[in-house]
């Protein structure tokens, strides 16, 4: 009769620390329209989007019925170019309003 060996408990694999992509974290300067909402300091794209969302949430600008839509106020209207945009359009709007 063969005896069954118990498997040794596996050690948790160490995850390699991910290096942030330097190009992804490069500071980008906002134009005048974007600076009116987030300030005029250069920031990485991720921080710019975060600041826009902070402004949207602070001022309750998400549409009540459809949370994916963002209603423009006086500061966002020049940036958006219309009264309401989809949250999926934010990346394009940010891209159009920064200088690399």
UniProtKB/TrEMBL annotation:
CDD domains: SWIB-MDM2_like. Residues 23-100 form the DM2 domain. Pfam families: SWIB (PF02201). It comes from the Bacteria. InterPro entries: SWIB_domain, SWIB_MDM2_dom_sf, SWIB_MDM2_domain. SUPFAM superfamilies: SWIB/MDM2 domain. This is SWIB/MDM2 domain-containing protein. It comes from Parafilimonas terrae.
